[in-house]
Amino acid sequence: xxxxxxxxxxxxxxxxxxxxxxxxxxxxxxxxxxxxxxxxxxxxxxxxxxxxxxxxxxxxxxxxxxxxxxxxxxxxxxxxxxxxxxxxxxxxxxxxxxxxxxxxxxxxxxxxxxxxxxxxxxxxxxxxxxxxxxxxxxxxxxxxxxxxxxxxxxxxxxxxxxxxxxxxxxxxxxxxxxxxxxxxxxxxxxxxxxxxxxxxxxxxxxxxxxxxxxxxxxxxxxxxxxxxxxxxxxxxxxxxxxxxxxxxxxxxxxxxxxxxxxxxxxxxxxxxxxxxxxxxxxxxxxxxxxxxxxxxxxxxxxxxxxxxxxxxxxxxxxxxxxxxxxxxxxxxxxxxxxxxxxxxxxxxxxxxxxxxxxxxxxxxxxxxxxxxxxxxxxxxxxxxxxxxxxxxxxxxxxxxxxxxxxxxxxxxxxxxxxxxxxxxxxxxxxxxxxxxxxxxxxxxxxxxxxxxxxxxxxxxxxxxxxxxxxxxxxxxxxxxxxxxxxxxxxxxxxxxxxxxxxxxxxxxxxxxxxxxxxxxxxxxxxxxxxxxxxxxxxxxxxxxxxx
Length: 547
Known about the structure:
The strands form 3 sheets. Strands 2, 3, 6, 9, 10, 11, 12 and 13 form an 8-stranded mixed sheet that branches. Strands 7-1-5-4-8 form a 5-stranded mixed sheet. It has 2 domains: about 45-445, no CATH class; about 460-530, no CATH class. It has 16 helices and 15 strands. By secondary structure, it is α+β, with helices and mostly antiparallel strands. The chain is globular, with a radius of gyration of 30 Å.
């Protein structure tokens, strides 16, 4: 535009000089420096990176939380191929992979001992311990007595889950009643029983599978990149016993300078092998981020505390050893905490492709009713894909304890034996940790422009809400993904022995079903009597509102 204006000015000046007989003079001081376009790398890899960056920017520009999630799912009608992370399976030696896939630095959490102290803070903790000790013991005895009168499952894992569920619910009820009057944030907290925690993210720095290597080697423009690392998509699914949420955030315990430490990011474990080598499975599904509630109309959208199960550890062979058992607990705490905070960040406009602008914190407890492990987690970054795996200076932090016994056993008379005050004191510290960080709406949701309720078009609001919840349900499509049968691969693809047969299958017509986008489907038909307007021939199909 600047160059066009300059040319126009020169033409008008030249015509004026011709009309008056004057000579054309150009003042060098008035010359404008030309603005040249950016020289871009024309290689295939650079173009792919540019397309990915443009797509990430499009996601950031989408107005609402629901539409951002729909936008992430747009490229795949049948869903993404994801690594299945969950809270019920932890393979052997899973901690390095978990730290790599969540970019987490693990530290030890100091447990305060129960001893005589002169500081006012310790004196206050001791008074809380004395005030709640008897009630907690009574709640434990009641939980075991109630469990004895139930029809228990045959599986030892299910028996432990049932007993732990009862104990956690009773202890939570007891502590909320005992501490709610003095600590007002507990009275304001929202309690979720067996909530649905799901999170989706992309991880870089993983070796490509063999089929990806062979596919790139077969293309001339990708041969040199066949062995380069790729991104793996991860989907976490968990269902803790119980979780507490609050409208304010927990205060971070790491400063920005500590979270942006290139030395720590380089020292993180790197697990570059295929996750299936450890025992993780893969599957196809839509990307979902669910922190236990829907995004609309919920003010308590920051995690305060969650209780995770360790019943699945009974299925692990004893030959793995005590050290790996402890690492399995660390891995469970890291991935469950990271996934819950990522889902909360998603409801505030952030995702795996759009970075956080402030840290998020939560507290996690892993228990079987008798042994308790305590963890604190701080989420500082979400960028783990592509080159960010090496270049991102930010890291996330997790600090935790070894399993601490709350009691030894419940006697035949129903009495609690060898109650541990140290474990109760640590549990009380988690409950009385007051969330103090409160942000304005603009600071809390910098990438969210509006809510779907702000749309005046009722049909648009209904379409976005239904599409978002349908994706979150992960129901299968009414038509299954096309499959290549073994006889077709043998006779039609590998050996081409059926040349005279009509070409009707998708691979014969050069159709890739994985390239089908989310909006590639037949629109809903509107009956003639229900069509708006005078001309009934128009508006035969309902309008879609994909971002």
